[in-house]
Amino acid sequence: MQLKKIINDPVYGFITIDDVLVFKIIAHPFYQRLRRINQMAMAHLVYPGAVHTRLHHSLGAYHLMCNALGELRNKGVDITKEEEQGAKVAILLHDIGHGPFSHALENVLIEGMHHEAISLLLMNELNKQYNGQLQMAIDIFTNVYPKKYLYQLISGQLDVDRMDYLTRDSFFSGVSEGVIGYDRIIKMLTVHEGELMVEEKGIYSIEKFLVARRLMYWQVYLHKTVLCAEQMLQRIIKRAKYIKAFTKTPLNKFINEPIDNVTLQEFCQLDDYDVVSAIKEWSTHEDKVLSILCEGIVNRHLFKIKYFGQPVDEKLVNEKRDAVMQQLNISVADAGWLVFTGEAASNTYNFDNEHIHILFKDGSVKDISEVDNALINENMKSKVKKYYICYSR
Amino acid sequence: MQLKKIINDPVYGFITIDDVLVFKIIAHPFYQRLRRINQMAMAHLVYPGAVHTRLHHSLGAYHLMCNALGELRNKGVDITKEEEQGAKVAILLHDIGHGPFSHALENVLIEGMHHEAISLLLMNELNKQYNGQLQMAIDIFTNVYPKKYLYQLISGQLDVDRMDYLTRDSFFSGVSEGVIGYDRIIKMLTVHEGELMVEEKGIYSIEKFLVARRLMYWQVYLHKTVLCAEQMLQRIIKRAKYIKAFTKTPLNKFINEPIDNVTLQEFCQLDDYDVVSAIKEWSTHEDKVLSILCEGIVNRHLFKIKYFGQPVDEKLVNEKRDAVMQQLNISVADAGWLVFTGEAASNTYNFDNEHIHILFKDGSVKDISEVDNALINENMKSKVKKYYICYSR
Amino acid sequence: MQLKKIINDPVYGFITIDDVLVFKIIAHPFYQRLRRINQMAMAHLVYPGAVHTRLHHSLGAYHLMCNALGELRNKGVDITKEEEQGAKVAILLHDIGHGPFSHALENVLIEGMHHEAISLLLMNELNKQYNGQLQMAIDIFTNVYPKKYLYQLISGQLDVDRMDYLTRDSFFSGVSEGVIGYDRIIKMLTVHEGELMVEEKGIYSIEKFLVARRLMYWQVYLHKTVLCAEQMLQRIIKRAKYIKAFTKTPLNKFINEPIDNVTLQEFCQLDDYDVVSAIKEWSTHEDKVLSILCEGIVNRHLFKIKYFGQPVDEKLVNEKRDAVMQQLNISVADAGWLVFTGEAASNTYNFDNEHIHILFKDGSVKDISEVDNALINENMKSKVKKYYICYSR
Amino acid sequence: MQLKKIINDPVYGFITIDDVLVFKIIAHPFYQRLRRINQMAMAHLVYPGAVHTRLHHSLGAYHLMCNALGELRNKGVDITKEEEQGAKVAILLHDIGHGPFSHALENVLIEGMHHEAISLLLMNELNKQYNGQLQMAIDIFTNVYPKKYLYQLISGQLDVDRMDYLTRDSFFSGVSEGVIGYDRIIKMLTVHEGELMVEEKGIYSIEKFLVARRLMYWQVYLHKTVLCAEQMLQRIIKRAKYIKAFTKTPLNKFINEPIDNVTLQEFCQLDDYDVVSAIKEWSTHEDKVLSILCEGIVNRHLFKIKYFGQPVDEKLVNEKRDAVMQQLNISVADAGWLVFTGEAASNTYNFDNEHIHILFKDGSVKDISEVDNALINENMKSKVKKYYICYSR
User: Fold this and answer.
1) Residue ranges making up the domain that contains A323
2) For chain A, which chains pass the contact test of at least 3 CB pairs under 8 Å?
3) pTM summary value
C-alpha cells in the first residue's frame, strides 16, 4: 500500500492522505458511493457549477481537520496519534449516512431517520470489518470521548464540516461572497478547559463567517428556484409512495415496501443515479401528478414560486389550485400536490445550541454574541422566515 | 419572457443571456439533457472536482463567443446581428450531439458516428421547431457561410470551444497549470482577409496556450488512471453488446438492437445516468468479464495500468493474461477483455490542420510554428505517443 | 493618439481606456504623481503586499464606474455621452488631492484642508488647461448636477470608490475575508426617482459588503500595529514642525513655512518619497524625540501599542511616561510625544449620512437598516470605539 | 521573543516564521531596507500592480524553501535542524545585496559588483553580529557545503528564488499566464546522489514552468516600455556621474565619489527613495540630457522604443539623432544619450548552466531537454534576441 497520496482539489490545492486506515476507508464501496451523491442536490439548476459531490466535501472537511489538529498541536494541545486518527476518520465518515440528494430527501426517502444515525450504523459496520480500529472515531463522533473539543471540531457551529461546505459550495456555485477565511479561522482556534474556542483576534473572522453563512442560505441553499426544485423532488418521492408507483430501478423497494424491509446493504447501493433514473422513467407515468413533477425536474420546467414576508394568503392558494384543477382536469386533492405552500427558515446564529466561544487574552470567555459591539446580537434570536407558494404553471 | 438573465459561473463570474432564441434553446429538453452528461467522463476518479457538465461547458463557450465577437466588432470587423446570433447559437449547440460520457464512449455506443454529425441532426431538428431561425447557425457550423472566421471561432486550433474547455477543465480539476490567458487571447484576436488571426503581441500567449493544452492532455485527459477507467468503460459497453447483456434501463435498446432501430428522440433521452445505472445493475452480472469491469467502475477498483515509451512487450501481456485466466478460471478470449494494450497519443500543435496564424504589424502573416524563435517547431511534427497495458489485479 | 488602451490589473483582469480626455488626464503629471503615493500608508508594515498606489486605486474605481454606468444604461437609465465622460473623469480624479501617505497625514501636513477640497482645486486647474472640458465632472463631483445618482456613484456609502478600495486593499493585503461581491452589487444597482438604489435581491450582498468593510477596518486599517505606525508618522510631521526641523527635501517648505506660502504647484510635487527621504534624514537628528520616531519608522522599530475597551487608565500612562523620561533622560513634555493615548473608531453603517436604499419589486423603498430581519440594525447606531496607548519601548 | 508569527501574503495565504534567528534577521535594518526596494524596478509603469518589494519576494522564497525542505524530508532525505536553518537564512538573504531598483541599476550604481557579492559581504557582517550563527547559511550560499542540493534550491534553474519571483511577479502584474505550478513542482522535487532532481511525473510542470518564464520575460521583464524606462533610468545615473551632477540626497556620494569611498554601511542606507528623490531634483537640472531623462521618468513621458529582429539600421539611428540635435539644440554626443540602441536577450533554458534533471522511476537521470518528446530541445540553444532603438520624442 502506497504510503502517501496527493489529491488535487481546486479549493485547497492539494489534499494529502498518509494514514493506512484512512486509505482503506476511502477505497471502501461505502465511501465511493458518495461520488454519486450530489452535495447540493438541485442547486445546480440555478448554479450550474454546483455539481460537486459528498465525497469531495468529506475529503475537504478531512483536509481542514488535518490542518486544525496540526494548529492545535502547535499551540501545545496534547493530541495523541490515536485521537488524531479518530478525529480524521470521524470527519471523513460524518456524511456517510447520506442517501440520494442528501438533505433534500432526508426524512422523505427514509422516514424518521437522520443521516447522522445512518452514519453511525455504517461506522459500526466498518468498525467490525476493520477489527475495532474505528472505535475512537465512533467515540468522538458520538461525543462520549472525554476530549470534547474533538467532537466540537466535527459537529458544532464552527466545525470543519461547516467550514468546508461553505467554502466549497461558494466556490463551485460561483457565489464568491460566500467565501470565508477558513485558514485564518483555523489559525485562531484554541482549546480552553477542554472546549474549542476562538482567540480574541478572530472575532471579526467569525462574524464574517456567520454573515457569509447567512448569505449562502438565502442566496443559494434557499434560493427560491432551488427550494422549488427540491420541494418538487420531495413530492415526487412522496407521490410515488402514495400511489405505489413502480420503478425498474433499485429505488422500487424504498418506494413500495415498508422501510424496515430495506437492509443497510441495500441502502448502500442507492444513490442519485437511481433516483434520477426513476424520475426519467416516471416522467411519462400515467399519474398526471407524478409525471408533471418528474417532467419538470428532468427538463427544468420548474413550478412558479413566490416568497412572502407573511404566511401566504389562502385566497391566492385557492385561486392557483382552481386554475390547476381546471387546466389539468384533476381532483382538488391531486391539485394540492401541484400547488402548495410552506416556509423557509434560517438563523444566522443559533443562540440555544453549541455556542461559539471567544477566549480573551485575560483568560475570560464570552459567547460571540456577547462580545463588545457584537454584530451578532439578541436582535437575531428569532429565525428569519420566509413563506412561499409553488404552483404548476 | 425575461429579457436578460445572469448566470453565476465560478470560472467567468457571470454569464449573460440576452437573446430570446438563445433562451429558448437553453430551455429546450435537448439542451437540458447536457446537464446529465459529465464533461470529463471518468476524470473525476482522479480529480474529484472534475464533475462539471457539458451544459456548463457550452454555456462557457457561448460566453467566450460573446466576448470574442464584441472584441472583433470593436476592432472594426463588421458583424451583423444575424451573424452574431448565428455564431452564438452554433457554439451553444456544438456539443449537443454528445452521448453519455461524451468522448469516452464516442464511436462505441453509437458506432461510426461522431458527435458533430449528431449535433447537426439535432440542430436541423431545432431549426424545424423554430421555423428556420437556426439556419445561419447551421451555415456557420458547417462552414458554408462565407465569413470563414465565424466557423474558425467554433472549430479550429484556437476556437472558443477549446479555450473554454481548457480553462474550465483546469479550474474544476484543480490543475492550475492548465490555465490559459483566455481573456488576453481574445483581446488579441483579429480578422485578416476573412480569416481569424492573432496579433503579433499575442505570440507568447498562444505558445503558452499550446503548452497548457499539452500539459492538460498528459496530466489530466490521458492521465493513466483516467485512461484506464475510460478504457474499462468502453469495454463494458462492448462486452455488453457482445454477450447481449440485458439491462432494465433505456440503454438496453442501444446494447441489444441494431443502431438503426434507435430514433433521434431515443438518443435524446439517454445520458450518463442510464449508463451508470446499467453498470450498477451489471456489477453482479453472471458474466465474469462484465461484472468485473462494472464492479471496478462502481467501486473504483480500477485495473492496473502502466505506460511505456515503446509498444508493450508481448511477454508481459501473455504473463498478465495467463495470471488472469488462472485466477478467474476463464478462457483466453475472455482474459483478453481484462488484460489489454493500447496507445495514447496527442500532439502539441497540429501542423496539417486549421493553423494558428499570426498577423504582424507590417501586414505579413505567419503560422505560429514559423515565427522567429518559435517554441512550436518542426521538432514537434510527430505526435507524442505512449503505449500502455491495463490488467485486472 | 491611440484610441484604446488596455491595462493589466491583477484585481479585475483588464482595465480599458477609450476616451481621449481620460487618456490625457492619466498622462498628466498631476495624475502620475499618484504613482508615488501609497494607497494604504503604513499598512504594509503588517501586510507586506499592501504597497499598491493611489493611481492604481483610482484606475480601479474608474473601471467600476464604467461597469456601473453600462449596467444602469442596460436597465434603461438615460445617461448621455457627456454625463458618462463626466462621471468617469470625476471618479478618476476624486483622490487627486491626496498628499503623501494620504489619510495618514491628512490634516497634519496641510492643516485644515481635506483632500476633497484639494481635489477640487486641481480639477479646476485641469479644467482651465483643457478648456472647460471638465466642467461636467466638476458639477457631478460637487453634487450640483441634477442627476444625483451620478454623485452617489462617486461619494456615498455604496460608491465605486468604496467598492474598489475594499476589493483592492483586501486583495493586496491578502485578507481574503474582506472580499466583496462588487460585480454582483453593480448588477443590482438601479436608479429610482433620480437616486441610486439597490434591487431587493441584492440585500444580502449589501449586508455582506458592510460586514466586510467592518472587518477590513478592524483587521487592517485600524490594526493596532498599523495604527501605531501611522500615529508615529503623524507625530514625526508634528514634531518636525514644532522644533522647526530642517530637511534638504522639498518637504522643508511644508514644515518650516506657513502653509499659505505653499503653492498648488509645490503641493503637486510632493509625494511619499519626499516624506520618507526626510524621515531617513531625521533618523539621526539631534532631537531625541524626532530621531526616535524616525528611526522607528525606517527600521520598523515600532512603539508598543495596546487596545482597551475603555479610556486608558491614567496610571498606566504616567507609569510608561516616567519610564521613558528616565530611560531617555528627557522632559515630561517630550516624553508626551513618545507615550500617548487616543481612540480608534469606526461604524459599520452610518445612520445619519447618505443612506443605502433598497428598491423592492412593489416599488417601495427602504433603508438597508429597515428591511425585514435586517442584519444592520439600531443596535449599531453608535460607533465602535477602541482606546489605545502607544509607547516607546 | 514571540515564538511564532504569521504573515499574510496574498500569494500563498500565510507565511509562518518560527525560528528565532530568522526573526532577528527579518527585524534587522539590513533586511528592513528591502521594503524600500521595488522588486520589479520600472515594470509598474506598464503593470501598475507591480509595486511589490524585495522584502516581500524574499519572504516568499523563504516560504517555498520551508515547503521544499519539508517535502524532501517527507521523502526520506536527511536534513538536520542546522541545515534547515542554514538554507532558510540563505534564501532569506540571497537578495540582501541588491541596491536601489535592483537589476535595473546593477553594475551601474556600483560598477563591477554583482548583488550576490554584496549579499555575501552583508551575510558575513551579520554572521559577526550573530556570533557565527550564519556560517551554515554562508556555506550553503557559496556552494562549499557538501550537500549540493541545498545550494541548488537557492541558485539554479529550478530554485525557490525563481519559483517565487515568477509566481509573485505574475500575480502582482496581473499577467495570469505567467502562473507556474509551484506547489506541484515542489511536491515533485527529490534528491538523487546528492543533487536536486524532479520526479518523472513532473516533466510537464517543468516544461510549463520554463514556458511561463519565457512568457514573463518577453511580456513583462523585457516589455518594450519597461525596458525603455529602465534604460532611461540607467542613463540617468550614468549621465549624473558623467557630468558630476550634485544631489542633496545620500545618492550624491555614489555619484560623485569613487565607489571605494563608499562604506558598506552607507550602501545599506541607500534605497529607491533616494534615487527617486534625486531624479525629481534633477528633473529641472540645467543639463538638458539629465533633466529630459529625469522628467521622463517622473512624469512617465517615456522615450519611444521599437523592437527589431535584426540590429537597428544605422540610418534610422542617425535620422533620429539628428532630429533630437536640432530640436534640443545639443551636440551629437549629447544626442547619443537620448537616442540609443541595444539588444534584449533571454533564453528559455540555459543549456550550459545548472541543468534541470529528471529522475525516472527506473533510476535513470535525464536533462529536461533530453527526455522523450522534449518540448525544450536543441532548437532553443541560442538565446532569443531582439534589437531596439529608443529615442526622445
Assistant:
1) 224-345
2) B, C, D
3) 0.94
